[in-house]
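Deliverable D5.2: sample structural annotation.
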Amino acid sequence: MTAKASAWIALGCLLAPWSGSDAVGARAARAQTVTDSAQLTLVSADGNTLVERGRASGTLPGTVEVALTLGGRTATSSFTIRTPGGTISGRGKGSLKPGKGGYDSFGGTVVVVRGTGRFKGAHGTGWLYGSIYRVTDAMSVRVTGKLRY
């Protein structure tokens, strides 16, 4: 897996919101600042698309799966994070910078487009950065953003 691919996988796992609050008999709209970190590993690869999984910790802990598609100097991804209260899904895009010692760094943006359970109607935006070890495609990523649900 390339660094670009891993970077977008990480995006997905870090923008997962943790909790929502329901009012009695009605759903209260919430906005939450999210800061999460994740360690991801390669599960499979098909052409220029990589699938990675791992665990996110921080504001929104859960299990994350990301599909990353590489193209030139950009990468796009789709992600789903599963939490005890529901799932959050979205997409990301960004750029990659080659590094030294087998490590590349990346940065970009992420958009949450839907949620289930307590995250029904989730949407939001954020930023991510991290690194990928090109030898094994293991990735470390950190995401910060705003989530509404």
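Annotation notes: Residues 3-25 have pLDDT under 50 and may be disordered. The longest helix spans residues 3-14.
The annotation will be released with the project's public dataset once the embargo ends.
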